[in-house]
Design brief:
Elements lengths: L3 H10 L5 E4 L9 H10 L3 E5 L15 H12 L5 E2 L7 E5 L2 E8 L7 E2 L4 E4 L2 E4 L4 H14 L5 E2 L9 H14 L10 H7 L3 E3 L6 E4 H7 L2 H7 L5 E6 L8 E5 L3 H15 L6 E2 L2 E2 L2 H15 L9 E6 L2 E7 L6 E2 L12 H9 L8 H13 L6 E4 L2 E7 L14 H12 L5 H12 L5 H8 L3 H13 L3 E4 L6 E4 L4
Parallel strand pairs: 1-2, 12-16
Antiparallel strand pairs: 2-5, 3-6, 4-5, 7-8, 9-11, 10-11, 12-13, 14-15, 16-17, 17-20, 18-19, 19-20, 21-22
C-alpha cells in the first residue's frame, strides 16, 4: 500500500524511467495508457494522477475520482484498449489536502500495445516503437529470455492438456465474475486469450507455452517438458529428522493448490474469525496467500523443489526465485515484482490471488490474528522463504478473536441494534489494525474514503472511538465502553 511518505519520495525523484506524472484533474489523460503500456513493456513503474510535469501536486477533483478509476480498470481489461489486458489496481492517496491516484504497474512478461501501438519507456518518456522492427524484435526477445513461463513448445497439442481442468477453471472464473468470457470460448481460444500461446522470436515457431503446460497439462505432459518439477509438502513435528506426513506433488498448478490447501487443513487447526457479520476460515485466508505465492512466484526452470514444511513452532515455504533484492521484506516499503505474470493473471481470473503485492500485506494481517503477536517473515534471495510462526498447534480448540464479539455487543447494547453495518465494519478494522488511513479502511469495508471520514467523525462524537496521537502519525482506537 502506498503511503504519503513514500509518495513524497517518488515526487522528489521526479519523472524518469519508472515514474510518470499526469494532471488528470477531472478526467484520465488521453495518453495515460501509453505510459501504462510502456511501463508494462519495460521495467514497471509508478503512474501518479493529479501531479503536473514538475512534480507539483494539483490533485484530482474528488467527484471525478470514481469515474477515473472506473475508466482505468475497464480499459485495462479491454483488449481493444490494452492488449493483452492487464489487471490494474488504483489507490487514492491523501496528501496536502489533495487527492492523488496512484497506479503501480509491474513489468509484464508479455509485449503489450495500446490502440494497436507498441510503446516502450526510457528516461525521457514513452516512445511509439511500432514501426521500428528491430526495437520490437528486441523487446519480444527480452521478454522471452527473461520470463521462462513464456518458453514455447511447438509440438504441444490440445490433447496434451487435461480436459476436466478446463471445466473446473471455467466454473471458478464464472463464480468470481458472472458472465466471464471464458465461458463462451473453446479450449484453444481460452488458452490464447490467457496469453498461453505465443511465437518464439528466436525460432519463429508458435506453440503453447510452459505456463500452459504447468497450469492445464496432463501429469505426463508436465513431466515431459519439466522433468524435475515437483512441490513437496512435509510435516516434521513428532519426527523432526524425517517426517510425520508427506505429499509429493507433481501435477498441474490448479490441482497443486487444492492439494496443498488440503494438506494445511489436515495438519493445522482453524480458528474463529469474523469479518463484518460473516465467519470465515482464518487458516484458509492466511495460507491461501502463502500457497499461492509458493506456486506462482517461482523460477520453474531451476531444479530446486518448492517446499511447504510444517514444524512444531512454524510453517515455512521456500522456492527458487529471481530476486530483485536480498533480505527481509518490509511490507510498508517494498515494490512487488512479478515472477510469472501470465500464471499470476490466470490465478487472479479464478479468484485465487488478488492484485500483485496484496499477498504480503494480507499475510501480515491474518498472521497476527492466527498467531497473536507474531509476524510473518518474507526473506528474498535466490531461495525465497516465507515463515509463519505458530504456537501450540497441537491444541485444536477454536480461539476467539481477542474480544471483538464482546466489543460489538457493548456497542449494540449502548447504541442500538441498528447502529449500522458499515460502522461495525469500520470498528472491526480499527480493532484489528490500528494506524490505517481512511482510504485503507475504505478498501477493507468497501466504501469511499470520504464516507469513512464521515463515519469516523460520527463514531468519535458518540464516544465510541478516540484519536491517539496527532492527525498525521496517530491512530484511532476503540474507547472504553464499559
Amino acid at each position: 500500500m502506498m503511503t504519503s511518505d513514500k509518495l513524497q519520495q517518488i515526487l522528489q525523484q521526479g519523472e524518469g524511467l519508472e515514474i510518470e506524472f499526469k494532471t488528470s484533474a477531472f478526467e484520465l489523460n488521453k495518453d495515460a495508457f501509453e505510459s501504462v503500456c510502456a511501463f508494462l513493456n519495460r521495467r514497471g513503474g509508478h503512474l501518479l494522477l493529479g501531479v503536473n510535469n514538475n512534480g507539483g501536486i494539483e490533485g484530482v477533483i474528488e467527484n471525478c475520482i470514481p469515474d477515473i478509476i472506473h475508466n482505468i480498470v475497464t480499459n485495462a481489461n479491454n483488449h481493444q484498449k490494452l492488449n493483452p489486458p492487464f489487471y490494474l489496481s488504483p489507490e487514492v492517496i491523501d496528501i496536502d489536502d489533495r487527492k492523488i491516484i496512484h497506479l503501480y504497474i509491474p513489468e509484464s512478461s508479455q509485449v503489450h500495445n495500446t490502440n494497436g501501438r507498441i510503446f516502450d519507456r526510457n528516461d525521457d518518456g514513452d516512445f511509439d516503437i511500432t514501426k521500428h522492427a528491430d526495437q520490437v524484435a528486441k523487446l519480444y526477445l527480452r521478454k522471452q529470455t527473461t520470463y521462462s513461463e513464456n518458453n514455447v513448445f511447438p509440438y504441444l497439442e490440445l490433447a496434451d492438456f487435461k480436459p476436466a481442468l478446463f471445466k473446473r477453471i471455467r466454473v471458478l472464473a464464472e463464480h468470481e465474475r458472472a458472465g466471464h468470457p471464458w465461458m463462451e470460448m473453446s479450449d484453444d481460444e481460452l488458452l490464447r486469450s490467457a496469453g498461453l500461446y505465443k511465437k518464439d522470436p528466436l525460432t519463429g515457431k508458435s506453440g503453447y507455452t510452459l505456463a500452459a503446460a504447468l497450469l492445464l497439462g496432463k501429469d505426463e505432459t508436465i513431466m515431459n517438458v519439466l522433468p524435475h518439477y515437483k512441490t513437496d509438502a512435509i510435516v516434521r513435528i513428532s519426527n523432526p529428522d524425517r517426517f510425520d506426513d508427506r505429499d509429493d506433488i507433481r501435477t498441474n498448478l490448479v490441482d497443486s493448490y487444492d492439494r496443498l490447501m488440503s494438506f494445511i487443513g489436515k495438519h493445522l487447526p482453524d480458528k474463529f474469525y469474523q469479518e463484518g457479520e460473516h465467519r470465515t476460515s482464518l487458516r484458509d485466508r492466511l495460507f491461501r496467500e502463502v500457497i499461492s505465492n509458493l506456486l506462482i512466484h517461482r523460477e520453474f526452470t531451476n531444479a530446486f523443489p518448492a517446499k511447504l514444511i510444517i514444524e512444531k513452532d512454524r510453517v515455512y515455504a521456500e522456492n527458487w526465485s529471481r530476486p530483485h533484492g536480498a533480505g527481509l521484506i518490509d511490507p510498508a516499503n517494498f515494490a512487488p515484482f512479478p515472477k510469472n505474470p501470465v500464471i499470476a493473471k490466470f490465478f487472479n481470473e479464478m479468484g485465487r490471488v488478488d492484485e500483485l503485492g496484496s499477498g504480503v500485506r494480507s499475510t501480515f494481517r491474518y498472521c497476527s490474528v492466527y498467531t497473536p503477536g507474531a509476524h510473518p517473515q518474507f526473506i528474498e534471495g535466490d531461495i525465497f522463504k516465507t515463515v509463519i510462526p505458530l504456537k501450540n498447534i497441537g491444541k485444536t480448540t477454536p480461539v476467539k478473536e481477542s474480544g471483538w464479539p464482546q466489543v460489538r455487543r457493548k456497542v449494540r447494547r449502548k447504541f442500538g441494534e441498528k447502529f449500522g453495518e458499515s460502522s461495525e465494519k469500520i470498528l472491526l478494522v480499527i480493532f484489528r489494525s490500528n494506524g490505517l488511513s481512511a482510504s485503507a479502511i475504505g478498501k477493507e469495508v468497501g466504501i469511499s474514503s470520504r464516507a469513512v471520514e464521515k463515519q469516523l467523525a460520527r463514531l468519535k462524537d458518540l464516544g465510541i472511538i478516540k484519536r491517539v496521537g496527532p492527525d498525521k502519525g496517530g491512530y484511532w482506537e476503540i474507547s472504553d465502553l464499559s
